[in-house]
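Running this now, will post back.
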Amino acid sequence: MATYQPDPQMLATASVANNDTIDELLDDNTGINHVEVIETVIDSMEEDDSAMVSHLPEGGYLWKFNYGSVEVFVQLTGTSDADTMTVWSPVRPLPAKDEPSLMRHLLEMNGTSTFESRFAIIDDQVVVIATRTLADLSASEVSRLITVVASIADENDEALRTEF
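Update: finished.
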């Protein structure tokens, strides 16, 4: 069974094409504008003008965009320090033909190759996911979370569907 080891250099360089652009989004009074940072990162990554945003009734936001062969979702529950940013990407529907082996494989990958993200199951889908509160969340961390989830999902979705 082959395991994917993401290239840390690829993630570092993909993290944001231009850190100056992200740094420009800093607000001197309140820190960073998370909405603008997320939109800048998505704009630099999305393919085929696929990005969409929904304003949630509770005051949050939900973005969706295509990256490689996967769809990536970014949810911001609000803009206070107590709110959260969650990034996820479905990589394989369930059930699978050999779920015990799939689960072992995913757990092994969680321990060795998912950085700040992890594999999980949501609504009968294997997803790559990362969640973080907004307290002390920097623009570069926002960029890294989105990049890590999108890259790991894109690198693993086809192999997981084929092997399991």
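The first helix runs from residue 8 to 14. More later if anyone needs it.
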